Amino acid sequence: MAVCSSALCFIGGFASYPANPVKFCRRPVRASGFCFQPLVSVPRLSVQGKAISGDGSSETNDSPLVVCFGEMLIDFVPTTSGLSLADAPAFKKAPGGAPANVAVGIARLGGSSAFIGKVGEDEFGYMLADILKENNVNNEGMRFDPGARTALAFVTLRSDGEREFMFYRNPSADMLLREAELDYNLIRKAKIFHYGSISLITEPCKSAHIAAAKIAKEAGVVLSYDPNLRLPLWPSAESAREGILSIWETADIIKVSEEEISFLTKGEDPYDDAVVRKLYHPNLKLLLVTEGPDGCRYYTKGFSGRVKGLKADAVDTTGAGDAFVAGILSQLAVDLSLLQEEDRLRDALKFANACGALTVMERGAIPALPTREAVLNSLLKSVA
């Protein structure tokens, strides 16, 4: 469906969808504090699409599905910025993990998403399952491991909102997902299959990742890749570079940051288009480079350019890149022809930039992910 104003035009569903049921081990799902807010029409915009019932839910769920594969964990975010982990007086418990963030982000924007991954059969694992369900994410592909804990990450926030991570996963449940535990039918239903590189670090999850991507590719699903470099998790910098690039040429859409370009090219200038083009493989449909508050760059076979970001007072940048990915994938899932039409792609990227900007204004990743209404309102204010 189209959402248009005189200055902006975006593609995507404008409805919430009931989550598919999920089977849990040993105990039922409990309610969570992170609830999806029904979307309403935004003043000054012409909205066309499926009928919305009185409670904000859609009468049917036929929105194109984005399946996100990988890790889901608990981020412990300090309540005070600019301090070391040892000096932080308290931490906010926030659900996270890049692929899960993208899945929730898409659902918050009114799209249809699913998450495939593994958590511990523990209180944190059940809490994360609750959060997916409450945010209308299909969690039929989620698995529980009775012998490993849910991954944890403690986040150090600098005064400018940038962060560093200290992980507890030795091993964590997400590392132990096996190929035999994959829901192949769910993968084949997807319009887009999205993943990162953390699931490539160790076995058996590495083999599960490769198998899942292969099934998606054979089914004609579009593959979306965000390397999401977390160097401390890899045995070495060289193994990280090799691992990330090992699946590079299978992806149809790739999103990287400036820092990741420098890392992958061994220190070359990430602002040089010739350097970026080295990462553009023959089968790639879209390469995106995020630049934080400055926005993003885009590269296709036929055109390239830059889209400015929105100004935001950064409190915590955790999840901003994932919100951006959720924003653009929510548009592309509905209409892949955006990849051939530069003006419409630029509009979709303005929407994605706004998703990222709104996310940095709160602590934590999933708690800060915006609704479509919030994004459209912020865009209207920016052009007013």
UniProtKB/TrEMBL annotation:
Q: Which reaction does it catalyse?
A: D-fructose + ATP = D-fructose 6-phosphate + ADP + H(+)
In short, the EC number is 2.7.1.4
Source organism of this protein record: Tripterygium wilfordii (Thunder God vine)
GO molecular function terms listed in the Swiss-Prot or TrEMBL record: ATP binding; fructokinase activity
Q: What class of enzyme is it?
A: transferase
Quote the protein name from its UniProt record: fructokinase
Q: Does the keyword Kinase apply?
A: yes
The annotated pathway is: Glycan biosynthesis; starch biosynthesis
Q: Name one Pfam family in it.
A: PfkB
